[in-house]
Specification:
6-stranded mixed beta sheet; DNA Methylase, Chain A, domain 2
Length: about 325
């Protein structure tokens, strides 16, 4: 039985990855402040968690997964960089350090952190290095790499940095990750789409592919056409830049649907249906909650590949097979 703790848990991508792998596991807790995300998680996994802050939390997981809010690391955000004492959202990164230190002699065997690639930029990397040094001081070895969802079968140009810390002397080997060919984008797109997804806003129409660049607009940025893949799924589609737009005919373009965004993050339609039941759409309007939850999640297939290596390499754990053939972790 693998025990995981999901901090800043969102809609539960780590747990979904373990379910897909058929790994016997227990989510010993899930910590998320966003009330709507908690409701979605409970609907998907039949749990009864309540919104909570990570501040001051103490538990004993085998694997700890955290992806502190990315707004202060992202290019679109204010880029404060998650400094330890500045009070920004991403400073919550260091709450994970406090939580792990508070466990005393018992620490998670593996700690996984995910965030935007911009966390490694010259203006922000000092906070990331601070985090790595703190993990080393607690007895972990660190490795990190920028991973692209397109290398794991998902047609989304989503690059995220993954830092994996192993308790002890072993180092996570990113070269052992299982990568798969990118699937056709058609596998993820809906065949019939409501007219509410057709782009009608003048400010967005002016940025459609092929339109002349309007002086004074955001860096002259235009919307990208979806061809073989989409661009990063973000928390909103009705903005520029977004994940890309789809040509309907010679005169019309549309946004990605909420369901398509969830598929492109690696979730099943059954997951989306459970979330949509909890947060139903209003007639004629896009569902901002479901877009937001997809954009804030982690691509499930990347986590699957990471967990496969963690289990196969027996990082700082003793793994045996129980009478049912399931991997069981002996602490």
């Amino acid at each position: 039985m693998i025990k995981i703790l999901e901090l800043f848990g969102g809609i539960g991508a780590p747990r979904k990855a373990l379910i897909n792998l058929g790994v016997d596991h227990k989510s010993i807790d899930y910590v998320e402040w966003n009330e709507k995300a908690v409701r979605t998680y409970n609907a998907m996994f039949d749990n009864r968690y309540k919104p909570e802050s990570v501040v001051g939390y103490t538990l004993q997981p085998d694997i700890l997964v955290h992806g502190s809010p990315c707004q202060d690391y992202s290019v679109a955000g204010k880029q404060y960089g998650g400094n330890v004492e500045d009070g920004t959202r991403s400073s919550l990164l260091f709450e994970t350090i406090k939580i792990t230190k508070g466990l005393g002699e018992w620490k998670p065997k593996v700690v996984i952190w995910e965030n935007v690639k911009n966390a490694l930029s010259k203006n922000l990397v000092s906070a990331f290095n601070h985090y790595l040094r703190d993990m080393e001081d607690m007895g972990y070895t660190n490795s990190y790499q920028v991973l692209d969802a397109r290398d794991f079968g998902i047609p989304q140009a989503r690059e995220r940095v993954f830092a994996i810390s192993i308790l002890g002397d072993k180092v996570f080997d990113f070269n052992k990750l299982r990568k798969t060919p990118m699937r056709p984008i058609e596998d993820f797109l809906e065949k019939k789409v409501d007219d509410k997804y057709i782009i009608t806003q003048p400010s967005m129409i002016s940025k459609l592919p092929g339109k002349p660049i309007v002086p004074g607009t955001f860096g002259g940025r235009m919307l990208d056409e979806v061809k073989d893949f989409v661009y990063t799924i973000t928390t909103k589609q009705m903005r520029c830049p977004n994940s890309g737009v789809i040509r309907v005919d010679d005169e019309h373009w549309r946004y990605l649907t909420e369901r398509e965004c969830w598929r492109l993050m690696g979730f099943d339609d059954s997951d989306f249906d459970a979330a949509h039941k909890e947060h139903p759409s209003r007639k004629g309007l896009l569902n901002g909650t479901l877009y937001h939850q997809a954009g804030n999640s982690i691509v499930v297939q990347i986590l699957e590949s990471i967990f496969e290596v963690v289990l196969a390499e027996d990082y700082a754990t003793d793994l045996v097979t129980d009478e049912h053939g399931q991997l069981e972790l002996i602490c």
